[in-house]
Amino acid sequence: MNTAGTAPRRATIRTVAQAAGVSTATVSYVLSGRSGNTESSGVSSETELRVREAALGLGYRPNQAARAIRTGKSNLMMLSLTMLSDPWSLSVSKAVGSAVADAGITPMILADTDWRTAIRRQGADVVFIDAADGEGDAELLAELALSNRLVVFSETLEPNGFDVVRSMAGKSMEQAMDHLTASHSTVGCLTSAPSRKAPRQGRYGAYVRGLERAGLELREDHVATFDGDEFSAYEAAVTLLDQPDPPTAIFATSDFVAIAAIHAAQRLRLDVPGDVAVVGVGNTLQGEAMAPSLTSVGPAGFFDGLARFLVDRAHDPAAAVQVLEFPWQLFVRDSAPAVS
Amino acid sequence: MNTAGTAPRRATIRTVAQAAGVSTATVSYVLSGRSGNTESSGVSSETELRVREAALGLGYRPNQAARAIRTGKSNLMMLSLTMLSDPWSLSVSKAVGSAVADAGITPMILADTDWRTAIRRQGADVVFIDAADGEGDAELLAELALSNRLVVFSETLEPNGFDVVRSMAGKSMEQAMDHLTASHSTVGCLTSAPSRKAPRQGRYGAYVRGLERAGLELREDHVATFDGDEFSAYEAAVTLLDQPDPPTAIFATSDFVAIAAIHAAQRLRLDVPGDVAVVGVGNTLQGEAMAPSLTSVGPAGFFDGLARFLVDRAHDPAAAVQVLEFPWQLFVRDSAPAVS
DNA sequence: ATGAAAGCGCTAACAT
DNA sequence: ATGTTAGCGCTTTCAT
């Protein structure tokens, strides 16, 4: 924990105790708040004052590792966010940042890192995992849940020692597609590469069925796939739009692709929504705040709700496991307005 | 650290020792790698195997808090990043992510959080602070440096118990302005609100002097200010461009405003660089990868260099304090190409 | 109202 | 080659 040259040994609880002429126990009482106004347990306000002054004078800082080993609490919240530049991740981070304000807990982000290994290295009172899909993840999570309070974001996983946060798409994807097909006869899709393999499932499935409902044909040249990062998303959007017969509307399977698509369209001198309408999925803050604001389907109050839940769990890691569901809806904004 | 319902007491080093029929010391030796192939200190490979099997079978995980209290090492790197959505921050995060790959250290991001309070709560082997300007920060940092290895990014601070990372703009800002004034007679500026107060200093100062060198007048309507977030930056760019007599080039004081400016221009159906050229400051990955790629002035190899430095410090927190300087240069790319 | 003392899980001398 | 043991800084009974 220390330092260059001659290390001025950090003050411990014992140093403080000596300086204040009391025992370490008393110092601990005072400094961990067991001496408040309530009559709970008593340290006279004189000694309390002396202790506080000594601590201040010595620049005493409690050693969190030592505290953690005794109490089993780290006051840490860990957020594993897979793609940090995704507005979804940024929205989570921002919401959590506000929620923990005075809760005495510190949120740390594990970015683009493998939570599978990182979690065993560093514990936290609660850890949020934004993506768990892989094969054996269910078992692994169950195992990790033995020693960490886990909150997992997943549409498919069932709670098993860990909480599951789920956003229930329900009928809202259908709504989104119907919203587009109501005024467009060509609707394109931007989706992640793997999703094409399951053409009846998930977000891409919603696209396919939406076309069917509207009696529109599924055109290969109106579907573009990307993998992972935002540049790939941008390129996919260009592929879709910079062709002889581009779609006049785009169903993007996440806000972050949708935002890339809008930028791509504008670069191609296309007006959004005039020349091409865009809807995203996720209802992120960035989508809402951009210009034109992004029409998106997603859960209402999701980020704040999630943040509150995480703070709750951090405070009470022993609470019963539960699944937290956020119903979705369609948020019609400027990038794909309602037809008049 | 644990859990809902009946907590299956987590295995400790002692549990493992019993199961393997050895002492805790032996377990510790094996599990913290003091039994390698070298003849350093010896644990027979049979016992090593037995220990490893026992540990595996019991699902043993070393308690990091306990380890930290003994060794004083947390294997943690803390990155305090003030505006997480800024490509600069994302570039830092990404570079660090690669650098720590097999270094056994976990990078945690403190996002938009006040490092002043957070650091005292949670220690780390090395903590990077991306912005320290405020009044008393110099003293505070010196104090925090007593108990943490600090690496501070600052143009002005002097090392004082903490390392300073500095990117030496040198003549490169002048270059950037000259690059623009060589082919443009109207150059606008996007800068942060407070910078206007010091019209001869910093990045805004470089703009002012650049105009002077070229014999161009400083026009109030060609300077727009923003504060903080990206939406404000976007608005400022629109203000600058959506007027009767907009500039044909923009000097943006950071990549993130520059990127917002390009998006704003494209939305206004302006071609970049045809109708308006843009240069940024920072030379971030996002700027480099976008379309059109962003001409920017900034340090070469900065992010990777910084990441390596941080990993070094994490491994050897007692190394002598130093200042790390990255010379800047102008990276001419598509958003403001060279004149032919 | 305060203090003595027993550990939490782990590592590192120092034995053997 | 392996075991004993003394703590790291802190919290928390249990005495006083």
Task: Summarize the structure in words.
The structure is a homodimer of 340-residue chains. Chain A folds into three domains: 13-62, 434 Repressor (Amino-terminal Domain) (Orthogonal Bundle), CATH 1.10.260; 74-169 and 301-329, Rossmann fold, CATH 3.40.50.2300; 172-298, 3-Layer(aba) Sandwich (Rossmann fold), CATH 3.40.50.2300. Mean pLDDT of chain A is 90; it is low at 1-6. The radius of gyration of chain A is 26 Å and the shape is elongated. In chain A, strand 6 (187-192), helix 9 (202-214) and strand 7 form a beta-alpha-beta unit. The first copy, chain A, contains 13 helices and eleven strands. With 340 residues, chain A is of the alpha/beta class. In chain A, strands 2-1-3-4-5-11-10-9-8-6-7 form an eleven-stranded mixed sheet, sandwiched between helices. In chain A, 39% of the residues lie in helices and 17% in strands. Chains A and B meet through helix 4, helix 5, strand 2, helix 6 and helix 10 of A and helix 4, helix 5, strand 2, helix 6 and helix 10 of B. The structure holds a DNA duplex (16 and 16 nucleotides). Chains A, B: Pfam families: LacI (PF00356), Peripla_BP_3 (PF13377). Chains A, B: Keywords: DNA-binding, Transcription, Transcription regulation. Chains A, B: One of its GO terms (molecular function) is transcription cis-regulatory region binding. Chains A, B: Residues 11-71 form the HTH lacI-type domain.
